User: What shape does this take?
Amino acid sequence: IECFHPGKGLFMGVKASDITFSDSLTFAPVLNKNMQTSDNIVSPGVSAFSPDGNFLFIYDVYYGKLHWFSVNELVSYSQMLALGDLVPDAQPYSYYSFTKFMFDSQRNLLYALDTNKNILAFIDPGTLAIEKTIITGSRPADMSINENGDKMYVANYGATSIIEVDLAAQA
Assistant: This one.
């Protein structure tokens, strides 16, 4: 399971170039879509829904591109229509290997961990521009925002450490 959409009660999973949406109560697949043939996403990787649930972000590991799609294009959970790749060509996503996404609705930012580069990226979800990156330590594996929403904690698998990030200062 890559991500969960609470408003629609859907889980999204990835296998090869296919994404599958499943009902959260029955776990029955309700939509399967081959992303390579329809949207030229060869290897869908990490993904996340926006906090409002209106958009789905998918990182293509093969091309190093970040794609976003309108969830409203899901019709009766059985069709996905007119999904568009809205990524500016100038974005340097091929440099990264994102392994985890998280949205911050308080700051309207998408956070991304890159385990190979040992960084946390701050991404504007409207433009998909990477605003800033910071070094986290060896092999960041997971992240969590505290209850106040002002700090993020990043768990580093390689360093067996946890770092604290001040989200307002992005440091």
Summary: The two ends are 30 Å apart (CA to CA).
